[in-house]
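Note to self: keep these together.
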Amino acid sequence: MKLVPLRLRPGEDLRQALEVWMADQSEQAGCVLSAVGSLSQAQLRLAGAAATTTIRGDLEILSLAGTLSADGAHLHIALADASGAVIGGHLASGSLVRTTAELVLALLPEWHFNRELDPATGCAELRIQRCDPG
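Structure:
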């Protein structure tokens, strides 16, 4: 496992930045280990919903977890608003960093992740393969 710290700046799109970063890596599998920071806008797909919900305001990132592959990411986020109310869901593009997003990412050189349509779910789901060490 290779650990990589990453800081995103105000205005950057959290999801897009992670997808672009992963596409630039030689490794084919990664995950989010730690994330703190804030968003000014979050695009979330809530449980069971087909469309995303936009949330605006001062939002603190409480947690971010998920898998990263060259062909996409599957990320869940929990956020708190200025009153401390917490909401979470699938992180979508359009989630903008307010002050900072400080992340620790892991690259997994022995693994290959990609997304394939799963007929059982109708979604592009994670396919996991072990890389040949030779």
